[in-house]
Amino acid sequence: MFIRIAKQKRGNKLYRHLQVAESFRDPAKGNAPRTRILAHLGTVEGLGEEQIEKLIAGLQRAIGATPASFSPELLSARDYGHIHAVGGAWDQLGLSSILDGAGIRGDASFDAAALVRMLVVNRICDPCSKLALLDWLESVCYEETGHPSYHHLLRAMDRLLLVKDVAEPLLAKKFMAGSEKLDLVFYDITSTYFEGDRSLVDDDLRRYGYSRDGRFDKRQVVIGLVMTREGIPLCHHIFPGNTVDKTTVAQVIADLKSRFALDRVIFVGDRGMLSDDNLDLLLGKGLGFIVAYPLRRNGFATEVIGGLSKRFDRKIDTEQFHEDVRAGMRFVVAYSPAIARDVKATRTERLGRADAWIKEVRRKLANPSGRGRTLTAQGTYDRIRDYLRDHHLLGYYQVELHNDKLSVTKNRQALVWEDTIDGMLMVGTTDMESRMEDIVLRYKELAEIERGWRSLKSTLLLRPVFHWTEKRILAHIFICVLALQLERWMRQRLRGICSVPHAVEILRRIKIGELTVWGKRTRIPTTMTGEQKELLKALGVRPITASRAK
User: Fold this and answer.
1) What is the pLDDT of residue 137?
2) 95 and 61, same structural domain?
3) Which pTM does this prediction carry?
4) 515: domain range?
């Protein structure tokens, strides 16, 4: 039963008749839908606004409602669109079921997988500490788990860490579903530092070491990350903060072979990571590798490039490739004229500035002004070396001091070699079959892991770490890597549309308003734009609809 407005035109006037109607199916017409009029209430113009309000009030009294209860009242409006999208992506992949299958629930009385879901959603949408997350829940509409206690969040992290060895291969398999065969793995490490020394114990992971953030004054841990060529993490490892890069590879290789059942796969990394011992280890495990070689002060690079450099036609403005096979390995050298021009132009500009600075310093040494401290040959020598060292130009000059005679000349041999290697990249590999272009492209895909590190440290806020005990530090990093896995998966689905952080900001504008209508509480989303609908569709997440408040 419903109110129907029937329009009728008489002359130049339009009349709107209010009718009470109902829909039914007519058996005589093959159960076709029909409408019949139950009552005629009059015209809208004839009744007037006051009479229509009286009719509404009468209908309200018939169901025991009052006029006040009919008036809608907005109780709250909270952010929801980004929560719905990220949580929907998690649910679409079935990650909670995977964690449950790995045994995260155990004998716990709470749903640990659901709390991990909440921690990951928060890490992508609005990363904060676990205590701040409880306040964050008051500003968003997150219905899946209600409002947990801080104690339960920490226990969920503990349980997640317990199932890491079992869960990582299961999660990786789900994230790679539908992808190409796993034939490449990329490995790199980074570090994250800590602001304090609370709860330090013997053999603590937090130690002083080489800081990739330039914070050598802070204790840190080292994180090793293994990724697929699509940029999705397979697994991660945590090492003490003073661990040397190349010493981590053996443990990672053994773990990949034991937990991920890799057969023929190529391990991609930098030469500083893949030492000769590590390359031998890879070969012994039946794994191939692609590794870039430094072009300066490296015997292999000098021999290979020295033999191949004449084959490159520097008059052709296209990328070129040549190769050499020696010592049982294949060395591929790529040359890019565009990169060569840029590198040479930058070096020429830097050397020009250095020459002008050195000339001015030597002028002051030869012609002291009499003001300030008098320059000495030793002091000038030290200043010039410090300047060249700080500007990474020391290798291009020969600075000598003999009997207070200062000599500064260009290192012609070094500059000739720089001209030779401008725009070049040299990689060594065990892959004897793939095209040279493909070998170089596979190595360049290692840049994807660098993007992952940037996401971890900027978007997902791996740092600062608000935990001080070892197991909570490890669990926090696992949560961040889980968030990176989901963020990388979402990035693939949104490719060509926008980045994940931008999508999160666009979807954040979808609010859920809780209001009362006819005395009943209802949740209604704000009207979505076409762009917001497109993002949800691309992620495969269901549309947002109104719901009855609990």
Assistant:
1) 93
2) no
3) 0.79
4) 72-162+468-550
